[in-house]
Recover the amino acids of this structure.
């Protein structure tokens, strides 16, 4: 998701409260705001995007609370943390093992489309191991050829 996406206060707070309780997390107003941003559908967000979106629900929410709560959500199995590099961690509300497409030029991370996943070569494993899942990040950027063609089209 991009944090500018609107989160409505109407998205049933009681649902998120029981989601947090079931995961063993005390549902404070701050954690509920974070949960509403991240757990209403499948999203990929940085901590700053979570902060920005959750502040639309709870303007007093502090950066420290968001940065402390996200690892707790990960530890309790509500989120996955995907480390893109030493400075960038993306929080994913889809917690099963799956692969991603990372657009280096825009910073967008999305689940790898199934068609791309099916076309990827499978690793050759020793007979003592079986494949349980693929969890890879495919890094891409806009093709330079495509960029050139697009700008030619614009000038015509
Ligand atoms: Zn994902």
């Amino acid at each position: 998701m991009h944090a500018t996406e609107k989160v409505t206060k109407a998205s049933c707070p009681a649902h998120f409260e029981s989601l947090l309780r079931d995961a063993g997390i005390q549902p404070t107003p701050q954690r509920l705001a974070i949960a509403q941003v991240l757990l209403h559908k499948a999203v990929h967000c940085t901590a700053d995007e979570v902060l920005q979106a959750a502040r639309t629900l709870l303007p007093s929410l502090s950066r420290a609370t968001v940065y402390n709560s996200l690892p707790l959500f990960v530890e309790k199995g509500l989120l996955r943390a995907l480390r893109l590099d030493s400075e960038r961690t993306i929080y994913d509300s889809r917690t099963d093992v799956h692969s991603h497409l990372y657009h280096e030029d825009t910073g967008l991370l999305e689940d790898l489309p199934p068609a791309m996943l099916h076309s990827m070569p499978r690793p050759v494993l020793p007979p003592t191991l079986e494949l349980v899942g693929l969890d890879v990040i495919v890094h891409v950027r806009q093709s330079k050829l495509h960029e050139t063609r697009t700008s030619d089209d614009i000038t015509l």
